[in-house]
Amino acid sequence: MAPQLSLIRRDDFTADIESLDLLSGGFDLRDWIQVIGNEPDTSVSETLTLKITGTSQDNLAALIQSLDEKIRQANWYKDSVEPYGVWLRAKMGNETNARQAFIFTARRSPGAPLFDNVSGRENIDREYQLGLERIPWWEATAETTFTVSHSPGINVLGGMWNYGSIVGDVAARMARLKLTSTNGLRELWMGFRSPRLGIPANLQPVWELEFGSTGTDTSAGSPGSDATASNSNKVTCTFATDTTLINRITVNAGNVTLNPDDQRGTFQVLLRAKCSNGTTTARARLRSGYVASETGMDSRARIVISGTSWLLYEMGEVQIPSPGRVLATLFQPINVFTLGIDAERIAGAGNLEMDCLILIPTLEGFCYVDAATLNATANPVNLFDRADGKTDGVQIFSGTVGGVVTTKIFGGVPTGNGSLIVAGQRSTETVKTDVIGFELYTFARWATLRGAE
């Protein structure tokens, strides 16, 4: 197999638009000062030294101009209207698969000996130096696709999709995540989970509050007390004796799972809650730690809860275990790690009803989207993590782009057999039977060589 070193103009999901071979056709690689990326690098800079040989002085000029054109094209991508970027594609002579890296910026050397005797007599640019700033990782030349239909779909109250295995030695790029549903969903939280922190299938993202310990003026209904609750059971705080901000419910890892050690990670915690009537307004805050008292746990900001429909409320981020490895392994096992809800009533005379906590992983890769109504294939949402690190999302209405949606994307798709955990809701409520479908398009990544992967 022949080695490869080319400058390729293309975009995700397209064939190569143009290609310039740097190992033939008048180009000869004399030196390549390669750099290996390390986390948390966002780019690396390299220099390629080329010898360019023409069949005539005009042919030499054409060769140099073709290389200069790739430099211009790489810099065009800084304009968001430019659809195509430039990649450096490489493969060793006996490496099975080619790999490529997106180029942020390309620069030519300040000068070259083009007017000496050798250049004039032999039509040679002896030392053309090409400086490249590229992404720190090498990517696969084609995407890998994972799909689950919205029928039957993944449940939006902490549903888990085991999408398969991601190759590479660094997290893959989520080039595109297409979301479809028939339930009119609008707001979604999604987090990736790999074997790094435990068995993904053992993660319990839904912590049912009725399995915990109730506090002041709070009680857990009997099973079947509310068919709309995730486990047909809710926790009710009446504020009958105390309306101030105090402990109402605590639940620990041992209450909800037989595999507490697989709960390690960092999570966005969502509370599913509502009020018993439209005149009542409450405020709730999340606490976390190992001691079930307000002074022995870390507290988050207070969140306003109102309305009679179940909604998901962002309560803050937690780390399990907290503060870290020493406490969990030496003093306190993870099964007693506790999440608590303090609540107060600030208006009305009704109750605060709480269903569950949903833990969305944020450590390895996380996505959030707030869009118009998501309805099957007629108006899906597409989230993009571009090769240059920019992220965005668009919604499609009957085949036409409807506009940009509010999107947060960070991290990648972790290597190994992974899962995606999701929570979501409609504009006015979250329904426990709602589901969503995914199309996940990834580009595997490597720090150095790709080999046979």
Characterization of this structure:
This protein is mainly beta. The protein folds into two domains: 4-136, Elongation Factor Tu (Ef-tu), domain 3 (Beta Barrel); 144-446, Galactose-binding domain-like (Jelly Rolls). The chain is 8% helix and 49% strand. It contains four helices and 32 strands. The protein has helices at residues 57-76, 117-122, 253-256, 325-331, and strands spanning 4-10, 18-21, 27-33, 44-53, 85-91, 99-108, 124-134, 138-139, 144-148, 154-155, 157-166, 170-180, 185-193, 206-208, 213-214, 218-220, 235-237, 246-252, 265-275, 281-289, 298-299, 303-306, 311-320, 338-347, 352-361, 365-374, 381-385, 391-397, 400-404, 406-411, 416-425, 435-446. The strands form five sheets. Strands 8, 9, 10, 12, 27, 28, 29 and 32 form an eight-stranded antiparallel beta sheet that branches. Strand 28 (391-397) and strand 29 form a beta hairpin. It starts with a strand and ends in a 7-residue tail after the last strand.
Task: Give the topology.
Blueprint: E1 4-10, E2 18-21, E3 27-33, E4 44-53, H1 57-76, E5 85-91, E6 99-108, H2 117-122, E7 124-134, E8 138-139, E9 144-148, E10 154-155, E11 157-166, E12 170-180, E13 185-193, E14 206-208, E15 213-214, E16 218-220, E17 235-237, E18 246-252, H3 253-256, E19 265-275, E20 281-289, E21 298-299, E22 303-306, E23 311-320, H4 325-331, E24 338-347, E25 352-361, E26 365-374, E27 381-385, E28 391-397, E29 400-404, E30 406-411, E31 416-425, E32 435-446
- Which blocks of ≥5 consecutive residues have pLDDT under 50? none
Give the overall pLDDT as a whole number.
Answer: 91
Classified in CATH, the superfamily of the largest domain is: Galactose-binding domain-like
> What percentage of amino acids are in beta strands?
over 45%
Number of strands: 32
